[in-house]
Amino acid sequence: MSEVNEVNEENNAPTSSAWLNIWIKPKETVRAVINRNKNRGIIFLVFFGSYATVLRIVSFSDLIRILSLREIFLSVVVLGSIGALIFYYLVSVILQLTGRWIGGKATYKEIKLVNGYISITAIWCLVILIPQIILVTLDKSTPPILTMFNILINIWIFIIYLKSLAEVQRFSAIKSLLNVSIVSLIMYITLFITLLVIVQTFGKPPGVI
């Protein structure tokens, strides 16, 4: 009876506050989400997370000082939407297929759940943009401590993602890293070949050496 209570406690606790627990208990949170089949509204998480990621990239680069407000908005919407669709559907299926090569057991649906709930971390990171936007408004440079904090947060999010993926694939974090590396390599090669074909077909854009 006590074992059943332990299982129920493990399954119920993380999902009630996944927005917080994903940071400190990623494996338990993901497992509880899968056990409860909580996929309602997950696509919205993916899109908002993708928008937040693009906005954060723009904010911590010189682009925020170069682009107009309209251009920033269009960049976030267009690139964020494309990124969300690629991450949620394409990356999920490649992770699932390549994961099998190294002993992964996750289903396509489980991978999508991981990619959906990891987006919570990206949305939370919008908090970091508040001081950054204030600094840009005052025409001040980003202090090193804020840049370092942003880097550390990115590293921790990556670790959270590896742990979450390892949970659904039912293998170690090292294999999870290998899984992600294989997918990254496949996508980079695909992008390189696509760009090469475009250049060979239409020629180089003006101004490109």
TrEMBL record:
Any idea which UniProt keywords this protein has?
Answer: Membrane, Transmembrane, Transmembrane helix
Q: Which GO terms describe its cellular component?
A: membrane
Domain Yip1, by residue range, is 21-192
What subcellular compartments does it reside in? Membrane
- Please give the start and end residues of each transmembrane region: 41-60, 72-95, 116-138, 144-165, 177-199
Q: What is its main location?
A: membrane
What is the protein's name according to its record? Yip1 domain-containing protein
Tell me the InterPro entries matching this sequence: Yip1_dom
Q: One Pfam family of this protein, by short name?
A: Yip1
According to its record, how does it sit in the membrane? Answer: Multi-pass membrane protein
Which superkingdom?
A: Bacteria
Q: What are the top taxonomic ranks of the organism?
A: Bacteria, Bacillati, Bacillota, Clostridia, Peptostreptococcales
